[in-house]
């Protein structure tokens, strides 16, 4: 498994009139988490695009056990639990500063050629970085 | 089953540098769909809040088979397929103007007391409107 | 002067915990207004991009006299008050259903070559459509 | 003058299909800047709301000299240049990592009673913190 932890603060603009973060906004926090996980592996996403690869989201999911409010710190644990093959699945766990698990979720991404927008195999450059984490 | 169809146009601000709608934005379109379904049943969501009820999202999901681009019309079919009990599940199907199904998803909402933020039973006012649609 | 009126409904996701539309969201409503004004002139913005032109925003401004809340209809009056030369300025007036003026603002856009990202002259195709509105 | 510097990274979801940050998104970055300035003065905004005060935005403005792209760091310098009286004006300067000034702007906020939503005087608790910075 690969995992990385990142922290973000809730803005006023993230809340809605229920006084909690709007449910769709968590997907931006998930994005921040995976950006930092990839950067930490020295595989920043912008470099994939430079090399002709897009990773569009093909599935997204979130379960809300609790809610974050304005000015809270969100601790985002981002995990890759399986070696990617045709697609890559990324899992997220968001905890508050009391250590309570508030929101979990996952995204699934395809590998797509930037020009043709057709599916591509997982690039070897990514696999060679990921493989050591999934040794038996 | 209850269903309602609503249409929205994609703004430039909904797109990202991949040239397609950002994956998290679809949850706003889902919200627009359920707003209009509830309004069409003469149960607009703001009235539920006026009556002391919140319907926070406890789960959200989307599957992206294709993508919408700037200025596209999105046809949002919103469906309630089961009579709500403790929670309500709402399904969404987003098609383009060629009739192609591009994005599907669902949300699950709890019924919560606006003051105490504790779970509530589905209000009778809602059930009495919903029940006729689920007569066998 | 050129003007066009468009209407949009406030989503829950547009509000913040103050119970009103978040100040930055109005710029999306301004965008919707100018999209529809341009489309109504048979000059939809996507076609400008197809013809190699970007219209990035170089200035934006809003004055908030009142606020919109969830589920309100916003009536967006979009206006071009001067024939564009190097730049184009677009003005916005947002009124509620009681006819009260709630938010005003403007944006200024440059004309930029899509490839080189360098300034371009206003295209004749646009000027020929705009000019008849500014005959004295 | 009071000033504070904060840094944020651009997410993919902040960009649009022009490949740059959407113009309306900068107002969230401005918000992050003023949150951190107020927190740094030991006057976090949530505490003002706890004390019955809202600071709604009555005016917002941005000038875009350049643009930020995905994954850029934004350095946000937030400034209060005048002692607030009936309203407070906050200025923002956003620079990239090459030190180039890309976006400037300001917001003006009213002081409003949380219950009545009517104008209030600037609270003494805020003035007593701000005043020492404006001694001539």
Largest sheet of chain A: 5 strands, antiparallel
Q: Indicate the CATH class of chain A.
A: Alpha Beta
CATH topology (level 3) name of chain A: Thiol Ester Dehydrase, Chain A
Query: Uncertain runs of chain A with pLDDT below 50, 5 residues or more?
Result: none
Shape of chain A: globular
Largest interface (CB within 8 Å) is between: A-B, 22 and 22 residues
Number of helices of chain A: 3
What is the count of structural domains of chain A? 1
Straight-line distance between termini of chain A: 11 Å
**Radius of gyration of chain A, rounded?**
16 Å
How would you describe this structure to a colleague?
4 copies of one chain form a homotetramer. By secondary structure, chain A is of the alpha+beta class. Chain A has a single domain, classed as Thiol Ester Dehydrase, Chain A (Roll). Chain A is built from 3 helices and 7 strands, in the order βααββββββα. In chain A, strands 1-4-5-6-3 form a 5-stranded antiparallel beta sheet, with helices on one face. Chain A has a two-stranded antiparallel sheet with strand order 2-7. In chain A, strand 5 and strand 6 form a beta hairpin. The radius of gyration of chain A is 16 Å and the shape is globular. Chain A starts with a strand and ends in a 6-residue tail after the last helix. The mean pLDDT of chain A is 96. Chains in contact: A-B, A-C, A-D, B-C, B-D, C-D.
């Amino acid at each position: 498994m690969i995992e990385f932890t990142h922290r973000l603060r809730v803005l006023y603009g993230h809340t809605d009139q229920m006084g909690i973060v709007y449910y769709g906004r968590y997907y931006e926090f998930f994005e921040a988490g995976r950006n930092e996980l990839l950067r930490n592996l020295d595989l920043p996403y912008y470099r994939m695009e430079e090399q002709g690869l897009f990773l569009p989201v093909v599935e997204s999911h979130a379960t809300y056990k609790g809610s974050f409010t304005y000015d809270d710190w969100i601790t985002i644990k981002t995990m890759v639990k399986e070696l990617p093959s045709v697609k890559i699945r990324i899992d997220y766990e968001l905890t508050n500063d009391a250590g309570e698990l508030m929101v979990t979720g996952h995204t699934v991404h395809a590998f797509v050629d930037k020009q043709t927008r057709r599916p591509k195999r997982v690039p070897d450059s990514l696999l060679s970085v990921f493989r050591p984490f999934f040794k038996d």
